[in-house]
Amino acid sequence: LNTLFPFTGKAHLIGVTGASGTGKSSLVNQLARHYRQPRQAETPPRVAIVAVDPTSPFTGGAILGDRIRMRDLAGDPGVFIRSMATRGSLGGLAAATAAVVQVLDAAGFEVILIETVGAGQSEVDIARLAHTTIVVEAPGLGDDIQAIKAGILEIADVLVVNKADLPGVENTERALRGSLSLGHPLPQRMLHHGRMETLPGQPDAKPDQQEWVPPILRTVALDGTGIPELVDAITKHQAYLKQSGGWKQRERERLQAELELLMQRTLLDSWRSRLTAGVYEMVLEQLVARQISPYQAVERLVSF
Amino acid sequence: LNTLFPFTGKAHLIGVTGASGTGKSSLVNQLARHYRQPRQAETPPRVAIVAVDPTSPFTGGAILGDRIRMRDLAGDPGVFIRSMATRGSLGGLAAATAAVVQVLDAAGFEVILIETVGAGQSEVDIARLAHTTIVVEAPGLGDDIQAIKAGILEIADVLVVNKADLPGVENTERALRGSLSLGHPLPQRMLHHGRMETLPGQPDAKPDQQEWVPPILRTVALDGTGIPELVDAITKHQAYLKQSGGWKQRERERLQAELELLMQRTLLDSWRSRLTAGVYEMVLEQLVARQISPYQAVERLVSF
Fold first, then answer.
1. pLDDT digits 0-9 by tens, A190-234
2. Under an 8 A CB cutoff, do B20 and A284 touch?
3. Binding-face residues of A in 16-35 toward B, CB within 8 A
4. Out of A25, A59, A118, whose CB is closest to B118?
5. What is the DSSP string of A89-104?
6. What was the ipTM of the complex prediction?
7. Contact at 8 Å (CB) between B112 and B92?
């Protein structure tokens, strides 16, 4: 990875996140297919899919998902697919994903789709690895209060209501729009919302004075409806980032997040290796017997 | 927390986890209400609900959920509700949840329901804080491959198909049953599956020779259907754990998980405080310029 690292930084890293049932795997497959379609004189970009499944901490169930995928995209040597399941260690999956993305970036994949299942903290950490983050919703999911999702929406650059052929699509879109304004409470943002929505990335926009407002798009991944528009929004976001200086800022944030994840693991590993055999067990026994609190246990362990 | 810790260890910690849209908040409310119903001569247990929402890393959207909750359980002084949203730090939420649970345990709440949104790594970490973990599903969610959830099912002690009045309940139950056997690949487990399912916790069972097989229950949280049966299964699981020695084992695992979470944070904080101002920024600049890799950056930072 040290040798490869200078060759990274060329790929567009696109995170795709959303709850189970939003159909985001199909959406990612469609995106990959669309990117790979030959058009005009351009060579289509090589596309990598990194499918991260933190819900499978023990059995590594991602393998099955891979097979389904393969069927859709098989035979195209310009598409590489890699599934990753967590090994149960906190932060370990995000660090491993970062490493895989670096290898693919150095290997010349221009588009890297990082797909994450669910919308928990680990997904947010993985989303921080991307330049452009797509949050996928679908109608009919969740009687949980929509506004609760404001947090995940704050990391969204593009919002997608997939399965837009199902009833309730207007409700989902309205809820997203509501949460979006909750998640961006700055008054000037609210004010500019309507006007700015179609501007970013267009030639007449002044990107350094403007803020990107996440567009809300409808797709039907199963038949490909809305996929060209989604790819267009992704491309616009990339152009916006590059024009506004946001690309460099994201790169910096990305690398910083990666560094901190790695730092955390390194510190824990280094502490573990310094620990004398038996000390940990002794302190754990005292803790289990409730002679000392977890905080006191940490104090004792750190002092060794 | 050090002073309170010796008074902990009395509460039954019940984790309730499941994806958005499974109606697990309503389920938790119903469980609390059922526990609080006076029956025979017994005083009903005091119940605490700790609702953890790792999907809201920035805005702390949990407050809204709280209000809805209050309406259901308001006026009962034997019920305490606390919502927690992540502050964005990896592992921080699980550590904070553990601390809150300790305070409630020491304060004499006999039943503590720990509710987590979603099913990612952070939810698994929080589930590790519980004695009994309930995984909630609902019909009609997810065209993602069901088997992928085998990982989360491995932490389940009780499985609930909520919204069991909706069509597709049989499919969901079948998928769960399939995933459950995938998640427990030991041949003797498979062999005993049918026979053992109803045995654990019953007087004639020999718990130390037996393994708990997670029952699959149907509920309709909105009207309370299946709630008494669910409480019964939770109670049986507690009895099973106590008879089989599993309770002590869980306590140990719980406390160990808590210790490691805390250790991780302490190590990171301590490293940060040792770091000279400017060093971190310098190394980050080198990383952003791709002069060094993230691994080399960590090496440099550790050496300071």
1. 333 333 333 344 444 444 446 888 999 999 999 999 999 999 999
2. no
3. 19-21, 23, 25-26
4. A118
5. -TTHHHHHHHHHHHHH
6. 0.73
7. no
